[in-house]
Amino acid sequence: MNPERIFEAFPAPSYRGTQEQALRDIRDAFAAGNDVVLVRAPTGSGKSLLARAVAGCARRVDEAEPSDATGAYYTTPQVSQLDDVAADDLLADLNVIRGKSNYTCILPDERETPVNQAPCVRERGYDCSVKHRCPYFSDRAIASNRDIAAMTLAYFMQTAGSEVFRKRDVVVVDEAHGLAEWAEMYATIQLGPRTVPFWDDLRVPEVDGLERAVQYAENVAQICTRRKDDLLAQESLSAAEVRTRDRLQELIGELEWFVSDYRDPQSPTTWLVDQSEPSSARAASRDEDDDPAGGPLTIKPMSPEKYLQHTVWDRGNTFALLSATILNKDAFCRQVGLDPTNVALVDVEHTFPVENRPLYDVTQGKMTYDQRSETTPKIARTIVRLMQHHPDEKGLIHAHSYSIQERLAELLADFGVGDRVRTHDRDGRDAALEEWKASDGSDVFLSVKMEEALDLKGDLCRWQVLCKAPFLNTGDSRVAHRLEDGQWAWYYRTTLRTVIQACGRVVRAPDDYGATYLADSSLLDCFERARTDMPDWFAVQVDRMSQPELPAFDPSAAITGDSGGTRGGGGDRAGSTRSNRTRSRSRRSGPSSSSSPLADVWDTDG
């Protein structure tokens, strides 16, 4: 790459905030010989524009030898982020390619058929007369031949080893903070009725260790191969058979990777196997002489450095990884298999006034599993008071789990404010979110897992509540394994990362403003425990945290808008009257060293 090109490659007509200094620092980091540069850039710093500038430094075809890698990849784990890139005129030369299922066939009788189920994949030897106009193959051809190809991280990893998307000179990963977790998720193997097409035909034993899991994986892979070959032998397939064939091929690849990695003495990957109880029908159908019946299996990798090496690090010469929440450079490098000595960290300053992004302490107790039933009603009452405090402003409630969401919705309905509350389920979350964003008025949205990839600028949302510290589920075997190994710093750092991401949902520009209310006292404990990994700009927010003066509990006022008090804290943009509505508080000291961290965070419902 040529780092000196970074300024001419910047796509905007002018710089905003600290972008010019950020480009200078990134250029110098690459010029110093670093193969990887981590760019810690907070919300509003224009990460996508910085990413485009870095991609523009890639070696060009006219500068390269035939064997040299040229061009760049832009990738992000978040579909919404890729959508934003595709819609941004300043990033028009990032040529976006998505998976086949995102495109529809253009043949006259197949207009509603996804390309991954079109005749070209259903019929052996099918010669498509319009393949040159097929939206998927057209986008793929353009992306593979242009300087910058843009795709989701899932598609990027799936195309590892592809003849179409070969190694490039520069790879830019946006929203890279969860790279290790995403890799673990992609490399996880689920064997159960929803993921194995012939599950009901399988004899599933009790798997009592990794060796037994490997043997069983080999057996299932062989069955998958036979069934796939039977389908491939047919002249044509139905759409359902195509889905089965493709899933079988995926399973074969997943299982063979697991077996190969497990048997590689040089692999750093640690594998864990979880097995659920068998269904009552399967257990009842077992003959007395059969081995004990087992249930669905989940085979999980930890720190899958080898997987990332193949799917990411082998795909480029130099890398820029951008995020607001890469909190600890050395820890991040260890997780993703990078040598910290070849990695530089560039910090981009936050340009949003701290008074426009206040944190408020409205804690009502702990939301741990054993204290939740007592704390949740108190939080529900606090939400009502916040609805009174923000009578004509939309609010977002981060419920963390569907069980908490359901309980809060019940309580708020019982209090008589249900008409101002919206919820969503697992299947309709995106549609419900868009309806709420498009709505007028001041409805409150009870959300689950919306701490990231959500742009609520301006009046889309002026206040939000974190109902529960977003600790990872200690019932997950990977989490439990790390905690048994004493990795509490990782645990609290991961929680802090999610909190910081959540705080950025409602303040999206220097002149935007929005309040974040903390309802779970475990959040304050997390701030203390993860203080050394806290970015300076967020530490300032934490140090300024105060307790708001809320109106007395009156559900009718939450609906009518007659709060009887001063307007909401987020609505005071300049902060000139905020001191009249809040009283300062000192940060609480963390739990004593003799307390058990697990007692503070134990959670098993995700």
From TrEMBL:
Gene3D superfamilies: P-loop containing nucleotide triphosphate hydrolases
SUPFAM superfamilies registered for this protein in UniProt: P-loop containing nucleoside triphosphate hydrolases (SSF52540)
Domain of life, source organism: Archaea
Comp. bias regions, Gly residues: 562-573
Record GO terms (molecular function): ATP binding; DNA binding; DNA helicase activity; hydrolase activity, acting on acid anhydrides, in phosphorus-containing anhydrides
Domain ATP-dependent helicase C-terminal: 402-525
PANTHER family, sorted: DNA REPAIR DEAD HELICASE RAD3/XP-D SUBFAMILY MEMBER (PTHR11472), REGULATOR OF TELOMERE ELONGATION HELICASE 1 (PTHR11472:SF34)
Name the UniProt record assigns to this protein: Helicase c2
Native organism: Natronorubrum sulfidifaciens JCM 14089
